[in-house]
Amino acid sequence: MPYRTLSLDEVAEYLHLPRVDVERLVKSGEIPFQNRGGRPVFLRGEVDAWASQRILGLQERRLEDYHRRSTQGTHAVFDHDALIPELIKPGYIEPAMISKTKRSVIYDIVAFAETTGRVLDALEFRESVEAREDLCSTALPGGFALLHSRNHQPYRFDGSFMVLGRTCQDIMFGSPDGRPTRLFFLLCCQDERLHLHTLARMALMAQRTDLLGYLQGASDAQAMYDAMVGAEEAALAGRKRVEAPAAEE
Questions:
Q1: Which of 96, 108, 165, 193 has the most neighbouring CB atoms within 10 Å?
Q2: pLDDT (tens digit per residue) in 21-52
Q3: How far apart are CA 164 and CA 137, in angstroms?
Q4: What are the C-alpha distances in Å from 74 to residues 28, 120, 142, 196, 214?
Q5: pLDDT tens track for 96-125
Q6: Which fold has domain 5-56?
Q7: Rounded CA separation 107/129 (Å)
Q8: Looking at the domain 73-237, which fold is it?
């Protein structure tokens, strides 16, 4: 629940950070908290919003460091490092979304996610995604956005998954570089251990590989899916180039 309070140790575990790092963030006032009885407590919803915004703003070296630590927390969910084959499939990709505005993108991408049968309350989910965008745009340089809800709620979904929509036209979505966006990932993580880690994984793939260029030019959903799988493999191996899948005989 967004109003659930967390202790210092619980926040450290959720954020995949050492306790001393959270104590430093409290001392500097960088993380939202309340002082109760001489000790800091944290509202879950506020920590969710702060953490997602912070991850999206990390540059490559700090992002790699955070990603490495958060990977350890997800092994209880998946016993391997690859996330993409677990979270998305070609049927979860729409290569020709006809959205024309920021609000219609959110409406259309949530409606597309609903077609998977795994969104349990589409209206509540859409309102939470809109609230997150009102807080601060999830668009990033390179023409992509990592949409997600204002706060993490496991009851919204049947399992954890992700959808991707590519719009037919450029959308001014609030990217910090002032450029338009056409690639919209919508993260739907039921398990809280995946929520922040998936954000970090997608941001790292975009920074470390040439995934975005492949997705912009891919011919169909299958080609976009193959590019994502290849980009994740490349990012985990420390390669920049996404290798094209071998042609079928």
A1: 165
A2: 899 999 998 898 998 888 899 988 788 778 88
A3: 17
A4: 29, 24, 27, 10, 27
A5: 999 999 999 999 999 999 999 999 999 999
A6: Multidrug-efflux Transporter Regulator; Chain: A; Domain 2 (1.10.1660)
A7: 9
A8: Mannitol-specific EII; Chain A (3.40.930)
